TrEMBL record, chain A:
SUPFAM superfamilies given in the database record: P-loop containing nucleoside triphosphate hydrolases
Subcellular location field: Cell membrane
GO BP of this protein: response to antibiotic
Domain ABC transporter, first and last residues per copy: 6-236
Name of the molecule in the record: Daunorubicin resistance protein DrrA family ABC transporter ATP-binding protein
GO-annotated cellular components: plasma membrane
GO-annotated molecular function: ATP binding; ATP hydrolysis activity
TM stretches of this protein: none
PROSITE patterns registered for this protein in UniProt: ABC_TRANSPORTER_1, ABC_TRANSPORTER_2
Topology within the bilayer: Peripheral membrane protein
Automatic annotation (TrEMBL), chain B:
Membrane topology, record value: Multi-pass membrane protein
Cellular compartments annotated: Cell membrane; Membrane
Taxonomic source organism: Streptomyces pilosus
Protein name as catalogued: Transport permease protein
Record keywords: Antibiotic resistance, Cell membrane, Membrane, Transmembrane, Transmembrane helix, Transport
InterPro entries tied to this protein: ABC2_TM, ABC2_TM_bact-type, ABC_2_transport, Nod_factor_ABC_transporter
Family: Belongs to the ABC-2 integral membrane protein family.
GO cellular component, one term: ATP-binding cassette (ABC) transporter complex
Keyword Chloroplast applies: no
Length: 318, 261
């Protein structure tokens, strides 16, 4: 084994004239969480569909779990588990029957199947609802059943395509906890998400998919270093106070309309303390002090050309 | 596990899933039984006197004997509409995508549908046949071998129409389209010898009625149960069944093998 759970080189896919993936390279080490980010329609789901053998790539050297996708898809399938964007449960039958169906398809013995099903239903807090048709489940329950079904075969590599989309905050945190537990057990997780916070929270490595290729790849911290923007913002209510502070702190960028000053800073404790000391020595008393660090949102918008998005919190009016 | 053992095991798992669906939601299957049963009762009790008079003055029981084999074949056609609908509905479910990413026998999803549907067809034929017997249908001097052959023919015919229906279900984007696409399966019996002999139809239409799949199958069933002349209809029926089954199989396999959208 190379130590890579997923390796893709030059992955290409078009639908008709529309080129969706134009040479995507990815490598995911075993036992890590890899998150693929990208705007809607960037082709995240297509990547998952291809790597999980659901659709075939037009070109590319693709290996999952050490097996070649083109020549041995069945071996890939034996190594992976997939939870797609739309729940892959059979709504007509009960949660328990869904689990037993998976156990049968993984060729577990009857007894083993019942044991595994009961265990996973318990673990995902579905025991009470096990005898109800899956179509009656709430969104969060369906998603948990979906993941539970994926885990029946103890896959070493799990693809999660937007696993928390549409979930309430509590269910989202439950899902994060589940994902962390999986990785603690040595499983590799390939995650797509539209929540940058989720990638920041979970992923060891993050790649941003844009315009058919990988725009940037690295740890969350590495990505954040790509974009500038860390600063401390001081806001004043009294114009006179603002003016005297602005005179005292010449390095600060001024925002006369908002009566605010911005001092460049990485946001560490040490930097913050030196700023505070400086403010004290200059006798500046701000009414409000906030620390802004570049977050993945900044990275995402910088890389995918969405800089004009209005809610961007760190946008500085100079 | 060998490929064959894998195929059998996964297909029987899929069959259990489909039978579970049918047992949980029997209304689709039962609704499809209404058409053949209603037509049976309509033609016997409302049009019965006219029909038997038109066929040479025989009494009503003779027309019942004539009608029931046709209605049994029609029952199969009607049941397989349900197959097309449930296959197309199933294909829109996320669970099918899950199956495609699992290391299971590729064709088991379809085989499960086909076997389940053939079993439902047989059950439907038994139910409609029971109605036929209740209103006076009796076979005349059919030997055990002929009963067996009749049963074999019904199963083979169900298998053929089911594979075609699976193909129709796979090419249909939704349940409504599947139900429309599968319409010929219930309309064709009306254009066969099910209700009136082909001899009584206009000359230009006779070849169509005579050689479409339903007529040879119905005539063969009549011969087996009632002792009428089978002639070349036996071979025609078997040839149609095998031809349709093979065609439906390859069509379905090719459609299912394509990348989903």
């Amino acid at each position: 084994m190379t130590g890579l759970a997923i390796a893709a080189n030059g992955l290409r896919k078009s639908y008709g004239d529309k080129v969706v993936l134009d040479g995507v390279d990815l490598s995911v080490p075993e036992g890590t969480i890899f998150s693929l980010l990208g705007p809607n329609g960037a082709g995240k789901t297509t990547v998952v569909k291809i790597l999980s053998t659901l659709v075939t790539a037009d070109a590319g050297d693709l290996r999952v779990g050490g097996h070649d996708l083109a020549t041995d898809p069945q071996a890939v399938r034996a190594a992976i588990g997939v939870t797609g964007q739309f729940s892959a449960v059979d709504g007509l039958i009960t949660g328990e029957e869904n689990m037993l169906l998976m156990a049968d398809l993984h060729h577990l013995s009857r007894r083993e199947g019942r044991r595994v099903a009961a265990e996973l239903l318990e673990r995902f807090d579905l025991t009470e609802a096990a005898r109800k048709p899956a179509s009656t489940y709430s969104g969060g329950m369906k998603r948990r059943l979906d993941i539970a079904m994926t885990l029946v075969g103890s896959p070493r590599i799990i693809f999660l395509d937007e696993p928390t989309t549409g979930l309430d905050p509590r269910s989202r945190h439950t899902m994060w906890q589940i994902i962390r537990e999986l990785v603690a057990g040595g499983v590799t997780v390939f995650l797509t998400t539209q929540y940058l916070e989720e990638a920041d929270e979970l992923a060891h490595r993050i790649a941003v998919l844009h315009d058919g290729g990988i725009a940037a790849e690295g740890t969350a911290d590495e990505l954040k270093r790509i974009v500038p923007g860390g600063h401390v913002r001081l806001r004043f209510t009294d114009p006179a106070g603002y003016r005297s502070a602005a005179d005292a702190l010449r390095e600060a960028a001024r925002d006369d309309e908002a009566l605010a000053l911005q001092i460049p800073s990485g946001g560490s404790q040490r930097e913050l303390r030196s700023i505070l000391d400086w403010l004290d020595s200059e006798g500046v008393e701000a009414d409000e002090l906030t620390v802004h660090t570049p977050d993945l949102d900044d990275v995402f918008f910088a890389l995918t050309g969405g800089a004009a998005v209005p809610h961007q919190p760190t946008e500085a009016a100079r | 596990m060998s490929t064959l053992a894998l195929a059998v095991r996964d297909s029987s798992t899929m069959l259990r899933r489909n039978l579970l669906h049918a047992r949980r939601y029997p209304s689709l299957t039962l609704n499809l039984l209404l058409t053949p049963v209603m037509l049976l009762l309509l033609f016997v009790y409302i049009f019965g006197d006219v029909m038997s008079a038109g066929m040479g003055g025989a009494d009503r029981s003779a027309y019942i004997a004539y009608l029931v084999p046709g209605v049994l074949m029609m029952t199969i056609g009607s049941t397989t509409i349900g197959t097309a609908v449930s296959v197309s509905m199933d294909m829109t479910e996320g669970i099918i995508a899950r199956f495609r990413t699992m290391a299971i026998h590729r064709g088991s999803v379809l085989v499960g549908h086909v076997v389940g549907s053939v079993l439902q067809s047989v059950a439907s034929v038994v139910l409609v046949g029971a109605v036929g017997v209740a209103i006076g249908f009796r076979s005349t001097d059919a030997t055990a071998l002929e009963w067996l052959a009749a049963f074999g023919l019904l199963v083979l015919f169900a298998l053929a129409l089911t594979w075609i229906a699976v193909g129709m279900g796979l090419v249909s984007p939704n349940a409504e389209a599947a139900s429309n696409n599968a319409m010929p399966l219930i309309l064709l019996p009306l254009l066969s010898s099910a209700f009136v002999p082909v001899d009584g139809m206009p000359g230009w239409f006779r070849p169509i009625a005579e050689y479409q799949p339903f007529t040879p199958a119905i005539e063969t069933l009549r011969g087996l149960l009632l002792g009428t002349e089978i002639g070349h209809n036996g071979w025609l029926a078997v040839a149609w069944c095998l031809g349709l089954a093979v065609l439906g199989y390859f069509w379905s396999a090719a459609r299912f093998g394509r990348d989903p959208r």
